[in-house]
Amino acid sequence: MRRLALALTVALSLALPPVAAIAVQPDEMLEDPALEQRAREISEGLRCLVCRNESIDESNADLARDLRLLVRERLVAGDSNAEVVDFIVDRYGEYVLLRPNARGANLILWTAGPALLILGIGIAVFALRRRPSAAQNDSLSSEEQARLDRLLGK
């Protein structure tokens, strides 16, 4: 029974088209396969402003469709991939990029995490080195030993 369920699951997963192919409608696709491939490459790097963490190639939102059509219009007009991305970034801001550039103000965001991690490790090492070791405090004073003997009933 398990084998039948597994075989059915595998067969259904292979029969379904990939998620990205579901979002892009046939009426959006370009006739030229090379231009369509370029449009897909650009679309994979652009964020859907409605879905937040999906590319416009994967999103079914109306705004994502508009952006996909805009990318294709710019490609048909003769723009290079970089010019298309720059046009969309100028229009919608750097937030539209799924992988923001590590330049300018973004450089602070890219370096802040690792810098704080290194700072935290440094503080932890410094604190651990200043802490007295167990070897220094392993013997009891005579007063502490006498009190311990009384508590233990020796």
UniProtKB/TrEMBL annotation:
Residues 1-23 form the signal peptide. Pfam families: CcmH. GO terms for molecular function: metal ion binding. Residues 14-152 form the CcmH/CycL/Ccl2/NrfF N-terminal domain. One of its GO terms (biological process) is cytochrome complex assembly. Keywords: Cytochrome c-type biogenesis, Heme, Iron, Membrane, Metal-binding, Signal, Transmembrane, Transmembrane helix. The chain crosses the membrane at residues 107-128. InterPro entries: C-type_cytochrome_biogenesis, CcmH/CycL/Ccl2/NrfF_N, CcmH/CycL/NrfF/Ccl2_sf. GO terms for cellular component: plasma membrane. Belongs to the CcmH/CycL/Ccl2/NrfF family. Possible subunit of a heme lyase. PANTHER family: CYTOCHROME C-TYPE BIOGENESIS PROTEIN CCMH. This is Cytochrome c-type biogenesis protein.
